Amino acid sequence: MFKQEIKIQYLYHSGFRVETKKNIFIFDYFQGNIYLGDKNTFVFSSHGHPDHFNLKIFEWQNQKPDIKYILSDDISSKQNNKNVFIMPPYREIEIGDVRIKTFGSTDLGVSFLIKCPGINLFHAGDLNWWYWWKDIPEEISKAEVLFKEEIAKIKGEHVDIAFFPVDPRLEQYYCVGADYFIQEIAPKILIPMHFEDKFDASKQYAEKMKGSSTKVIEITRREQEIALF
């Protein structure tokens, strides 16, 4: 499926560690044990909500001075080092052989598209179709429009692996955003997130999508490791 082995570790909630041949990408670290390794390391925080951002990430530069931080522009950081990159939506930067493009969110912050040799990754952050069934009809319609408008901006981008919310708090609508993302973007692989320890949501969605051309990975535990080839 890929020209290189991709190692993915589920940290917690929306947090993942992704290791490619040359790089390590850490997304939305909140909790969990982390192994930094000796490769080029990029740390992404999609927004400042405490379940997506932890100041502890800045301690890692004591161990790896060349680590790179890519933060949404809603995050107030006192880090003024050259290794910190603040990105609003719809910006693009290139660091070595890694190209990073931001899109918007339907909550706070940004979503990330990362392009590097042999693999394209998308981390949605809090970009989702937030279908809160108890909202008034106008708010439900507004949430749908905002989400579909944002997905239209991403359409046309090639995505190999997507990390996307499958949130059981939405009850029967827990996967409407992921369904629409797969329909419009067609990633090769989708990895559910944003469910804390409610792993049944991941299992339910993986079973639902068994016949899909997009492979949905089931997350069953913290620090689960997934190897993709």
Please explain how this structure is put together:
This protein is α/β, with parallel strands linked by helices. The protein has one domain (6-228): Metallo-beta-lactamase, Chain A (4-Layer Sandwich), CATH 3.60.15. Helix content is 16%, strand content 30%. It contains 3 helices and 14 strands. It has helices spanning 137-154, 176-185, 200-208; strands spanning 6-12, 15-19, 23-27, 40-45, 68-72, 84-87, 92-95, 98-103, 111-116, 119-123, 161-165, 189-193, 215-216, 225-228. Strands 6-5-4-3-2-1-14 form a 7-stranded mixed beta sheet, with no helix packed on it. A 7-stranded mixed beta sheet has the order 7-8-9-10-11-12-13. Strand 8 (98-103) and strand 9 form a beta hairpin. Helix 1 (137-154) runs parallel beside helix 2. The termini are close together.
Q: What's this entry about, in short?
A:
This protein has 229 residues and is an alpha/beta fold. It is built from three helices and 14 strands. It is globular and about 50 Å long.
The assigned structural class equals: alpha/beta
Q: Quickly give the CATH architecture.
A: 4-Layer Sandwich
Taking the sheet with the most strands, its summary is: 7 strands, mixed
Helix content: 10-25%
Distance between the termini: 6 Å
List the uncertain runs: none
Please give the order of strands in the largest beta sheet.
Answer: 6-5-4-3-2-1-14
List how many beta strands DSSP finds.
Answer: 14
Q: Per DSSP, what share of the residues sits in E-state strands of 2 or more residues?
A: 25-35%
CATH topology, anyone? Metallo-beta-lactamase, Chain A
> What is the H/E string?
EEEEEEEEEEHEHEHEE
Overall domain count: 1
CATH class: Alpha Beta
